[in-house]
Amino acid sequence: MKKNFLPIAINISGEKILIVGGDQSAWKKLQILQRYGAEVEVLAKKVCSGIKQSGVTFFEEAYHSKFLKGYLMLYSCTNNETLDRQIESDCRAAGVLVNIHDNPALCQFVSPAIYRNGNISVAVSSNGEDVYESIRLRNEIREFFN
Ligand SMILES: C[C@@]1(CC(=O)O)c2cc3[nH]c(cc4nc(cc5[nH]c(cc(n2)[C@H]1CCC(=O)O)[C@@](C)(CC(=O)O)[C@@H]5CCC(=O)O)C(CC(=O)O)=C4CCC(=O)O)c(CCC(=O)O)c3CC(=O)O
Ligand SMILES: NC(=O)C1=CN([C@@H]2O[C@H](COP(=O)(O)OP(=O)(O)OC[C@H]3O[C@@H](n4cnc5c(N)ncnc54)[C@H](O)[C@@H]3O)[C@@H](O)[C@H]2O)C=CC1
User: Entry's PANTHER family (predicted)?
Assistant: First the structure.
């Protein structure tokens, strides 16, 4: 079935977010989430030094569904599609909102390209169909405001 993603703005203050995966994609995702003050934790077999030095709580372990307790949402940034499928199904069972960073077919929600200025956020999403167009348009919006 074709997916339809509804743009919403969700409060993350006081909520915990888990990133699975600990390399460059996870690092980029962490930096975006931290701009919104999210309380992020990272779980990966190997966590890169940038993430380790950023001060977030991290677990250098293999993924297991037992980790899912207490999170509002989870972003998977692994390099393993079989694992991502497992994570998606575990999250749905546990009631944790799930995003698989490079696989819209497995995403319960997708991440927009964001322009932020104080309380104003403009979020561009392509229904998960064309991320490059979302980024291009966000960059035009940034130019428009600056
Ligand atoms: C579905 C979605 C899932 C999700 O992540 O939620 C998704 C999926 C995919 N991304 C891919 C590639 C890249 N994505 C980025 C970057 C971003 N991707 C983001 C969102 C989304 N990406 C969601 C859809 C959003 C929408 O609806 O439009 C942004 C906007 C927000 C964020 O990640 O938080 C963030 C910009 C952050 C910023 O600038 O602020 C870069 C550039 C980079 O990494 O620097 C590359 C190239 C990397 C390279 O190749 O080097 C591919 C492979 C495509 C292909 O090759 O064809 C897929 C899979 C596919 O499209 O099928
Ligand atoms: N680096 C980038 O900017 C981009 C990467 N990608 C894709 O995204 C994926 C991730 O890329 P990178 O961040 O470069 O990561 P990477 O491929 O270097 O590392 C994957 C991460 O997942 C962790 N991991 C793997 N199996 C695990 C398990 N069972 N339990 C816990 N953690 C596990 C690893 O320890 C590592 O931290 C790859 O598939 C890559 O092709 C896509 C677009 C851009």
Answer: SIROHEME BIOSYNTHESIS PROTEIN MET8
- CA 93 to ligand 1 center in whole angstroms: 26
- The residue to mutate among 88, 131, 136, having the most atoms of ligand 1 within 8 angstroms of its beta carbon, is 131
Give the predicted TM-score (pTM) of the model: 0.96
Domain ranges of the chain: 16-106, 113-145
Give the residues across from 123 on adjacent strands.
Answer: 114
Closest C-alpha residue for ligand 1 atom 44: 25
What is the tens place of the pLDDT at every residue in 92-119?
999 999 999 999 999 999 999 999 999 9
CATH, range 16-106: 3.40.50.720
Q: Which stretches of the chain are assigned E, i.e. beta strand?
A: 16-20, 39-43, 57-59, 71-76, 97-100, 113-117, 120-124
Question: Considering only CA atoms, which residue is closest to atom 14 of ligand 2?
Answer: 24
